[in-house]
Fold these 4 entries.
Entry 1:
Amino acid sequence: MKPPTDTATDQAPADPAVTDDMLATQPVGYWSGLAHDVVTRHLRDAMARIDVTQPQYWVLNRLNGGESSAPSREEVVSQLTPLANGPHEIGRVVDQLLHRGWVRIDADTRRLHLTDAGEAARVRLRELVTELRAVVHAGISDEEYVAALKVLRRMVANVEDAGNS
């Protein structure tokens, strides 16, 4: 496989102390993995302090569409499993939220709905996540954030395209 340009940048070992002028040599897998780990830990630690998990927040948000768009348990599990730690996590989360009284199942349609307590929890969590996002995004403009995500999205596409050829 040849590099996409005439000049390839050498890949250096991951170095958290590397200077800005050497960042182009750093492995994206290390830095994107580190960002994922640190941000996810920050979010999950804050949620744990109020006895909620990130997957519970995902489910509460998914059920936020109102009566007309209420999903079934199977739909929620199918939609959120790609984000989860294994194929059974989201089903367990639905059970936890039912037990907690934050979610109810419609007896006739078998659709999931937020209870008043579930909606109150979702709103509180949304406020918390907004505060946590502000910490993560401090000193980063929306334009810089969009540019970073576009680069990561392009890298994902490059790897997926290379795997299909």
Note: The mean pLDDT is 91.
Entry 2:
Amino acid sequence: MTIPPTPVTLATAQARTRLHELTVIDVRTPAEYAAGHLPGALNIPLDHVRRALTEIRHAAEHRDILLVCASGPRSENAHRLLSEHGIPTATLGGGTGAWVADGHDLHRPTACSATRAIWSMERQVRFTAGMVVLLGLLLGLLVHPAFQLLAAAIAGGLVYSALTNTCGMAGVLGKLPHNRPRATDLEATLAALRIR
């Protein structure tokens, strides 16, 4: 087994100066992408990257690829997957959160202004985990103490998530309709990569 190379991580200042020469792929959910993304970024959610390998490989032959997510872990996962298939990429250190924190603007299409109310995946996870813990504790008090195991399971999942830098709950939430790309949007993105 070969270990994929450590991702080349670009700081936001480096990425900003090179933006015109990069193909930027945002691996967040479509809702997160619509709420604001790096100028010129294309959206291929992390769970669709494998489907887009041919198109990403083609784009990488013409321009360097920069992978972006909200804070870094999803783009690092995409980097590992692409590295396993011989496609070199870089990641944006700190993701779109760092981009905004450093004073750079995100592109928000006018047609998507209504989607700005959609929460980031991290916020969706925090909300869902908190609600399940509260529900488990409440049901444990009112119905049966065994429901407190639900709260314990979520706590264990959060610890595991922190230790492995993965998030199973984000994977599940990413499958909800508001977090899924429309087939036409994904096909348009893949077509754009073919002509780069």
Note: The chain has a mean pLDDT of 86.
Entry 3:
Amino acid sequence: MTLTQQERPGLDETVGQCAPAKPQPRPDGQDRYTISEVAAHTGLSAHTLRWYERIGLMPHVDRSHTGQRRYTNRDLEWLAFVNKLRLTGMAVADMVRYADLVRQGDHTVAERGALLRATRESVLGRIAELQGTLAVLDYKIDLYADALRAPERP
């Protein structure tokens, strides 16, 4: 069973604005991937992909007539976005909440935006911390470089 865009409300605008990490292996229409192919493409384990589906982070994943999962390019794009959210340090519960809001449709845009803005603020705070840490490292590296250039004292 393949879901139409109307049956997956709200997903399209989020996925469409997050370019996939790498080009899709197959063109749309020929994009039916097994879980092992998706695992190889995304770097996620099959266990993680099944867990994402179980907790509601993955939108509906189609199944073949034998029950085997069949992922699409849209699913790969969604996973690329989820991976970006993971890199932000967003809590899994917040990612699941975001996915649920996306599925609910356009009336959740304000709440989705608020969730992403809060995550952005957290990322900016971490970047500032890292920049401070980098400044300390640069200072120490410069001290050692100066010590190596200084002539030996008797």
Note: The first helix runs from residue 11 to 16.
Entry 4:
Amino acid sequence: MNIKWLIRSQSIVTLAAGMIYPYYLLFLKNLGNSYSKYGLAFAVFTLSSAVVSQWLASRIDRNAATILVASSLGMMAAMIAFPWVFSYGWVLFLQIVMGACSAMQKMSERILLADYTEQGARGISMGAYHFWTSVASGFAVVIGGYLIDWLTIDALFYMSALLYGISTWVVWRSWSSRKAEI
């Protein structure tokens, strides 16, 4: 995988996450009916992310691309599952899954950024990475707003799942072609 494929895949992930996140908050509020339940759900997400980060620490260097693929697959599954959730207990379970996937994604993207850049010459690549993922994030909220006006929140979850799936394919394809070169 080279830096261009990493930028593309993570821009797609950012698009998927940014498209659903503001509206996902509304979904949680409607399901939980209180800010304290939302707070607990977010805390579960954050704590599961922290725990998985510690568990991944010794494994991430050798398996960053595989972990990146697994994170997108996990988020895709969570996005597909959310429209079918009707109890707060399942929301908490999905928050654990999403927190774990978030840790996997963040840690693996950073390792791969380091692997595909050279010390002393990372600025241009990091700037491009930040630019494209930020652009994707900005467009995501706008796209999500228009889609939710025309469709339903369930459609946003499914669209987000599709984008996570595309990201998985981009990383897998790039990683597979790199392994074939070695």
Note: The chain is about 85% helix and 0% strand.
